[in-house]
Amino acid sequence: MSHVGVIESENLDVVILCGGLGKRLRTVLSNRPKPMAEIGGRPFLDILIDYALNFGFKRFILCIGYMSEAIKIYYKNRKGLSAQVFFSEEKRPLGTAGAIKNAEALIRSSPFLVMNGDSICKLNLHDFFKFHRNKKALFSMALVNSKGGYDLGKVDIDDSQRVLSFKEKVKTKQDDFINAGIYILDRDIFSMIPPNKKTSLEYDLFPRIVKREIYGYIADEQLIDIGTPDGYKKAKVILGNS
Question: Is 62 inside any structural domain?
Answer without folding.
Answer: yes
